[in-house]
Here is the input.
Amino acid sequence: MRALLLAVILLISACPVHADEEVLHYNIINLDAAAAKEVANDVMVAVMQASVRKNSAAEAGKAVNEMMAWADSVLADKSSIKHRTMNYQTRPVYQKSAITDWSVTQQLRLQSEDFDALTGVIGTLQQHLQVSSIQFTISPERRKQEVEELIVAALEAFGARAALISKTLKAKDYRIVNLAITDTPGHTPYRGGMQMEAMAVKAAAPVVEAGDSKVEVSVQGKIQIVF
Here is the structure.
């Protein structure tokens, strides 16, 4: 008797959930909307590289360390420029299956919102280091602000499209079944490898244009129209 009563209770409690699930199979429409904006880049990131080839790994490593110590001294009083070393590599150089030399490279990453200061430092550092890449992006604070504004715009666009569909189909109303909000980051690379090689010889500050990055927020979801 107790087992029968338990089975009845479970059956009754399961019915509403099953009914809701069945309802959600009807009048479902997939919908998406987006909002985008071109935002001026306010952060410059440069990667420079020290590269030395010597008869021994120790000699090459010592030379690279001296270059990096010199670069650090150049940057010592540049509080507006963040910097850190990365990607230290030691590789043998072969000739006819025999090691003839050793190559050591290390990269230096520079980041700043002061473009003039950073380009000036790059010009100085090119006395011993080479430019690997320069790119521009948006600071986290600026990006957060822009994304929040675009989320509002994208949701308003989603709501407007949902209302339009509901009205066109002569439905009484609609309800949101689910929503997913995503944003797309972007950066602007500095292009011109041949120009950068030439600058490394002249040890001149690069001429750069920060440009814009596209920030986009998209909303994907499902609505159920109610008749």
